[in-house]
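step=encode ok
step=design start
structure_in=
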């Protein structure tokens, strides 16, 4: 019974991890990465869309991103959206494409990025804990209703903690990897 309760919440754990990996990809490292523009929302035809829905973003060289809008009329809107996103750089517009040259990260900026990675990881750990709490409440409710025994509850909580520890380990692994990438000059 406890396995069933845990399995019904597996998607919630995965959603937390998916969100975490997405947020982590938007943290800037020393190299150009199109994912740093994931948070940019462009006003396009009366609605807000993410940048990948209105343009292709490619890496020209180690520190340059090239943004080619599918509709050249959207060039100004994309330019404005990038500046409004306050990512710390301004695109240059040549009438056909936007180019973003990423400034080299200094030591202070790298440390800020590492701190940001830590905050994103902590948010993910909190998300995992919240899912764990929901499962524990559901298990205790099942015990109160007489559907599972006290021993089943204890065993289920132990198994749940092993799963939570595995997710926390994965969060730490991703964060360490990203921190190393940020600090690499």
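sequence_out=
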């Amino acid at each position: 019974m406890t396995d069933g309760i845990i399995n019904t919440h597996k998607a919630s754990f995965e959603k937390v991890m998916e969100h975490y990996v997405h947020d982590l990809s938007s943290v800037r490292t020393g190299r150009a990465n199109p994912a740093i523009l994931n948070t940019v929302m462009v006003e396009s035809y009366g609605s807000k869309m993410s940048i990948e829905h209105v343009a292709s973003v490619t890496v020209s060289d180690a520190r340059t991103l090239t943004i080619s809008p599918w509709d050249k009329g959207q060039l100004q809107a994309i330019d404005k959206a990038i500046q409004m996103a306050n990512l710390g750089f301004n695109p240059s517009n040549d009438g056909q494409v936007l180019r973003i040259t990423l400034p080299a990260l200094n030591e202070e900026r790298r440390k800020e990025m590492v701190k940001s990675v830590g905050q994103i990881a902590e948010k993910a750990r909190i998300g995992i804990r919240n899912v764990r709490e929901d499962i524990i409440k559901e298990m205790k409710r099942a015990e109160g209703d007489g559907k599972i025994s006290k021993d089943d509850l204890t065993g289920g909580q132990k198994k749940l903690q092993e799963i939570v520890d595995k997710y926390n380990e994965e969060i730490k692994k991703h964060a360490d990897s990203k921190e190393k990438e940020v600090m690499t000059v």
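step=design ok
step=annotate ok -> The chain has five helices and six strands.
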